[in-house]
């Protein structure tokens, strides 16, 4: 179960990075979308760091 959780969190790193990058480059994209994408990316990173700390990986 632990490895599944870590794998799931890790699997979101690249898609979230690309989402933030693409939204930043879009003309006329609402600021709310960009800030929410950044917020989700940061939360995923925090969760992954916490899980890695707990599981010692």
UniProtKB/TrEMBL annotation:
Keyword DNA-binding: no
Keywords (A to Z) from UniProt: Disulfide bond, Hormone, Secreted
Principal place of residence: secreted
Cellular component terms (Gene Ontology): extracellular region
GO molecular function: hormone activity
Entry keyword annotation includes Secreted: yes
Example GO BP: positive regulation of biosynthetic process
Family matches, as SUPFAM superfamilies: 4-helical cytokines
Subcellular location: Secreted
Pfam assignment, any one: Hormone_1
The family this protein is said to belong to: Belongs to the somatotropin/prolactin family.
Protein name: Prolactin
Gene from which this protein is expressed: Prol
């Amino acid at each position: 179960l632990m490895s599944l959780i870590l794998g799931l969190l890790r699997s979101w790193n690249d898609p979230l990075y690309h989402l933030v990058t693409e939204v930043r480059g879009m003309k006329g994209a609402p600021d709310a979308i960009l800030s929410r994408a950044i917020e989700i990316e940061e939360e995923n990173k925090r969760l992954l760091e916490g899980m890695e700390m707990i599981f010692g990986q």
